[in-house]
Amino acid sequence: MLFFRRRKGVKSLESERLKYGTLNHRNIGVTAIELDKIVGSVDRYKDFDQDFEWLHRRPDFRSRAIEEAMARGEILPPIEVYELNNRYFVVDGHHRVRAAKRIGQEFLDANVTKLVPTSGNYETA
C-alpha cells in the first residue's frame, strides 16, 4: 500500500495579514533575503507547495529556463516581496524562488516592502 504525504500550500498574505489589523508599508529596497524565510504569496498561494514546487501542474518551459539561467550564474532581476513578522510573501518572482530553491541557493535578492502593524496589539506567529 502506498501512502502519499499531503503537500501543504504556501501561506496566503491576506490570511496572515488579518492577524495584525492595520499595517503601514515601509519600502526597504533591494537586499538579500534568506530563501527559508519565504513562506507565502500574495496571490499565488494555491499554485505552490511549501517548497515552491507546483501543486497542480508540471514545470513549463519558462520554469526550466529560469532554473537553467540561475544555475549558470546569470543575474536575474530581484523578486518583489512583502515582509511581515520577519517572513516573506512573494508579490512577483515565484518562478525565481522555485528555481533558487531547486539549485540550492540560500539567499535571493529581493525588493522588500515591510508591513508594520500600527499598534502593539497583534499576534506574533
Largest sheet: 6 strands, mixed
CATH level 3 topology: Conserved hypothetical protein from pyrococcus furiosus pfu- 392566-001, ParB domain
Helix/strand/pairing category:
alpha/beta
User: What gross morphology would you assign?
Assistant: globular
**Number of E-type strands:** 6
| CATH class term | Alpha Beta
What is the percent of helical residues? 10-25%
Give the CATH H-level superfamily: Conserved hypothetical protein from pyrococcus furiosus pfu- 392566-001, ParB domain
Beta percentage is 25-35%
Question: What do these coordinates show?
Answer:
With about 120 residues, the protein is of the alpha/beta class. It has one domain: Conserved hypothetical protein from pyrococcus furiosus pfu- 392566-001, ParB domain, CATH 3.90.1530. Helix content is about 20%, strand content about 35%. The chain is built from three helices and six strands, in the order βαββαββαβ. The protein has helices at about 15, 60-70, 95-105; strands spanning about 10, 25-35, 40, 80-85, 85-90, 105-115. Strands 1-3-5-4-6-2 form a six-stranded mixed beta sheet. Strand 4 (about 80-85) and strand 5 form a beta hairpin. Helix 2 packs across helix 3. It is globular. It starts with 10 loop residues before the first strand and ends in an 8-residue tail after the last strand. About 25% of the residues are buried. The model has no long low-confidence stretch (mean pLDDT about 85).
